Structure formats: C-alpha cells, structure tokens
Amino acid sequence: MSILQVSDVRLAFDGVVAVDGVSFEVGEGELFAVIGPNGAGKTSIFNVLSGVYRPQRGSVRFAGQDLVGMRPHRVAAAGMARTFQNIELFSHLTVVDNLMLGRHNHMRYGALSAFLWLGRARREELENRAAVERVIDFLELEQWRRLPVGLLPYGVQKRVELGRALAMEPRLLLLDEPVAGMNVEETEDMARFILDVREELSIPMIMVEHDMGLVMDLADRVMVMDFGRPIRTGTPAEVQQDPDVIRAYLGEQHRSVAP
Amino acid sequence: MKALKGRPELYTSYAQDMAFLNTRPKRAWTGGLVVFALVVPFLITDDLLQLLATGFVAAIGAIGLNIVTGYAGQVSLGHAFFLAIGAYTGAALSGSQTGRVIGFGITSLPVWLLASGLVAAFFGVLVAPVAVRLRGLYLAIVTLGLVFLGEHVFREWTSLTGGPGIGRPAAVPELFGVRLDRDNALFTAAQQLYLVMFVLLVIFGVLARNLVRSRVGRAFAAVRDRDLAASVIGVDLTRYKVLAFAVSSFYAGVAGALLFVVNGFFDPGSFSLLLSVQYIAMVLIGGAGTISGAVMGALFITLLPRITRELPAVLPFVSGDATGVITVFQLEAVLYGVLIIVFLIVEPRGLFGIWVRVRNYWRTWPFSY
C-alpha cells in the first residue's frame, strides 16, 4: 500500500529540463531517499510534490488525490509537510510561534473570533499549544522555546524546522538535506530524531541528502538521479553496487578504482 | 495560585503562559498607565487634552497601518485614502443635511463609527487583489496612486466634502444622547473627548493585540518573513493578504472618522501624501510589528508639532514666521524624514525597541553588562 505514487514526471524551465521521466512510489512507514550529484533535480522533485512547481507532464497521486496543479497550501492541507535545504523559518518569531504556525491548518477559527480571543479561539489555541509542546518535548527543544529562531545555532534551527513540519501531523514528510552543514554530533542527533519519527510516529518520509553514510544507514530504498533522470532505484546495498550509479558519482575513468 | 508566590515567571498552565498580560511587570505597567491616563484630564489644560485625544485617534490609525505593514509586511502608502473614506463616511452619516453638503443625521457614535470602518474595509478588500500580485516598492507605488485618486475625487465631489479650502463639519459625536463636543455640567468638551478617545483606543488596541497573537496574526508574520515557507505549511497567501488589508482599512476608517471630531471641521486637502507619510513615520518610529510601538509612535508624531513650536524661543535660526532661516513648519517636515532615517539606522525596532532595552537592563540590574 503506497501513500505516494509519482509517475513519469517532467519539469522543464524553457529549454532547461530539471526533471524528466521520474517515477517512484513511497509506501506507508517507508523511508525513501533520493540522492544524486548537485543539479540532479532532487529539490525540483520536492518542489513538484509540494506544489511550488507545476510539472508539464506526469502525475502525482498522494493519499488518493491528484496533486498536480494544486497550490502549496492545499497540498499542505492534504497532509504533506516538508523542510528546506536552506532553512526557511520565520526568524523573528519564537520557536513556539513557528511550531504553532505548523498547526495553522489544525485550527479553524477566523479573524472575528481572533479579535475577541474567547470561546473557540481560546480553546483551539490552548489545545494546539499542548500539541506543540509535545513536539518540543519529542525534539528536545525545551530550552529554546521562547527565543526567536533567528538567534539559535544552525543545528537547532534545522531541528526547529523539522519540528514545524512534525507539528503539522503530516501523512508524508519531505526532508531536504536534513543534515547539510552539520558537524558529526549534530548529524547523529538528527539521525536519531529521524529514526524516532519513523519508529514512534510511523510517518513515511522522503529524504534528499548528500551524506551517504546517513542515507545508507537509514533509508529503506534509494533512488539515484543524474541530470534530472532516475538511474537506479533499490535498496542501499543494491544501489551501491550499480555501475551506472558509480559512474554518475565518480565519472567514467574512475571505474577501475571503484569497488 | 499560592505556589506562584515569589515565582512570577513560573507558569503552571498554558492558559497562564498565553495570557494577555502574562507577567507581573506587564500587569503593573498597564494598570499604572491606565490610571495615569484617566487622571490626566483633570490635571492639564484643554488644548493639551485635545492634542492627546487626537494622538489617541492617530494611534488607532497607526495600529491599522502596522497590521498591514508591520505584521503582514505589505508596505502601504495609501493609508491617507482609507482615513479619508472613514472621515467622509462618518461625517456624511452623522452630519445634518444642508444646502451645501449632504448628511443623514445619524449622530450615534457607535453606529457611524462602525459604518466608517466597514466602508473603509470594503475599499480595502477592493484594492487588495492588486496587492496580492505585487510586493515591496511596487505595492507602495500602487497604494500611493490611491492617495492621488482620492485627492482628486474628494476635491471634485463638493456635495460630500464641501470642496477644497472650505471643507465640511466633522462627524457629530453623540453617545447615549450626550453631545461629547459640548461642555456640560460634569466635564468640558475636551475632557469628554479625551476620555472617549482613550476608551476607544484601549478597545481597538486590545482587539488588535488579540488578533496579532492569534492564528491570523501568526499567518501575517509568516507571509511577511517567508511567503514560500508560509504557503508550504498551509497558509493561503491570497486570503491573508486580503484580510490584512481589510483589517488595516477598517482601523483606518475608524481613525479617519474620529480624527477631525476634536477640531470639528476638515477639508479634502488634509488627505494628502503627507498624511500617509506621517502614519508610516508613526509605525517606523514607534516600532514596526508591535501594537504598543504604534501607540508610542502616534503620540510622539502628534506631539511633535507642539514641541517644534516651542523651538523659536530656544533656537534663534528657527522662526515662527517666514523671517528666519527655517520656519517651524519646514523644520517639522524635515524632522519626519530625519527621524525615520535615524530610527531605521540606529534603532530599527523603534521606540518599542528602546523600551525593550531599558527593560532588559533593569531586569538583570545590578548585574547588567
């Protein structure tokens, strides 16, 4: 049973083809990784999935709905959450407010009840604050709760961004380079949180990452891309042995030294 | 509550943490300021009271501009236009029909005040679709266009506005059958208007504060800080930009309707670009993205002419008439610009930021390094 089916997606900007012929499926509870050299089209796939770009061809079915042409906030409402390669947090707001924004769609009250902050508005705010505190607890963010995220260290900001996505209680989580630019210790922390998400919350994930150690340790299946096309999809062990993958990463003339 | 004694920042429920005034100093300061504001009318002269009453009204307008510009990040130079819509709606609804200007004689303050806000909000919603497609300077230019459109219409539509240089009476403030702009047995007109404007400012200030700490206010801030991330977490950008304009225009309409009540008379020339600039100055000097900053900025800008008027006595090159190097009126216009520049460079968080610094200094006193 798969939560996401992507088939034959093509995305081009005028003459530049960013993604072509991409098809894959992600199952319930699966951790699916997308890897490839810089410019292979990994982030473009994420932008297609979350509604930021509209592909020229192909279909994206997510939990029974067709996502192509849906605007990003509709896609979010359907249950897709993502983090960004370069942190996209609301840097003037506190950690709590950033996570509360993740719960935007879990609250329904409008501007008129917001003015009065009584009844429904107050009740929903308190309920969702409790939910946000559970995420804070889960990601061990307690000590930074009240600080504007712009003041936090990079590794913590990455974690807050994961928290904002988790606060949405998504049905599918897209992680765009969750450990980019982190030191070993921060990477280990993040790996632990990703495993926690999978084991305790059983949210299926798609992860784009350059840290091969992390990808090979965590992912159930890996899709390797090069120049916008998928060249191999399989388990980490299968992918590592594939001659096309080795060529994409190391180039033609290095084939003899590759394992 | 006993457990909290001596530990004012220990919260035992989210309701306490998220309360409107969630710290003891906030409660103390707010209470103190309210008491002070209620005592003031019995201590100072009527002309100062009138000035402060105008300042309170300006504060309502500045809160409105701050919602669209400071919170939602949509720079609007069109605030004067929405103030004008409110002013003319209020004046026409409450004024009496004369041969020269139209009026409907509905003098009850709550009625025409609400109507003024709603009419202005309606125009805000009309303009908003343009705002959704533009940002930054482009939006500023389009909203600037509104001011010139408005100036032309109000100059020509003399049955509504009385025409340039002549004007018409402002809205008639009547509350529960009492004319607020006339002295009576208990209070002078200035005292009554001061108190009513203060109460209105508190009401609209509290409502705005509730809005900005709610789901809606957070969505505004998200649109301002990073619109891409905002849409990806489920914020409908179009909807919230339109909403920000609607709320902002509503506040402008309310402020516009009240703005000339103290003076009693106004003409279409009042709603020029300078008025928009004054409101931008209030927001930037007070502190963008804060309600109390908007109030501080509005009071500061309203009191500024009064302060510059005292200058000829101190500085010989400033004159009250055209004889000196620079007149007080020129100096005033220069000061708006200089103050905006100085605040943007030195303290972008405005007067509110200065207050935060003072507060943080004393919080750790005597160990403030």
Automatic annotation (TrEMBL), chain A:
A Pfam family that the UniProt record links to this protein: ABC_tran
Keyword ATP-binding among UniProt keywords: yes
SMART domains per the UniProt record, alphabetical: AAA (SM00382)
Residue ranges annotated for the ABC transporter domain, each copy included: 4-252
CDD domains attached to this UniProt entry: ABC_Mj1267_LivG_branched
GO MF, any single term: ATP hydrolysis activity
Keyword rRNA-binding recorded: no
Record-level GO cellular component terms: plasma membrane
PANTHER family in the cross-refs: ABC TRANSPORTER ATP-BINDING PROTEIN, CONSERVED COMPONENT OF ABC TRANSPORTER FOR NATURAL AMINO ACIDS-RELATED
Name under which the protein is recorded: Amino acid/amide ABC transporter ATP-binding protein 1, HAAT family
Top-level taxonomy: Bacteria, Bacillati, Actinomycetota, Actinomycetes, Pseudonocardiales
From TrEMBL, chain B:
Chief location: membrane
Keyword Transmembrane helix (UniProt): yes
Cellular location(s): Cell membrane
GO molecular function, one term: branched-chain amino acid transmembrane transporter activity
Annotated Gene Ontology cellular component terms: plasma membrane
Transmembrane portions of the chain: 28-45, 51-73, 80-97, 109-130, 137-154, 193-212, 242-266, 278-304, 335-356
Membrane topology: Multi-pass membrane protein
Domain of life: Bacteria
KW Transmembrane (keyword) present: yes
Keywords recorded for this protein, A-Z: Cell membrane, Membrane, Transmembrane, Transmembrane helix
Alphabetical list of Pfam families matching this protein: BPD_transp_2
PANTHER family from the UniProt entry: ABC TRANSPORTER PERMEASE PROTEIN (PTHR30482:SF5), HIGH-AFFINITY BRANCHED-CHAIN AMINO ACID TRANSPORT SYSTEM PERMEASE (PTHR30482)
Protein name listed in UniProt: Amino acid/amide ABC transporter membrane protein 2, HAAT family
Annotated organism of origin: Lentzea xinjiangensis
Organism classification: Bacteria, Bacillati, Actinomycetota, Actinomycetes, Pseudonocardiales
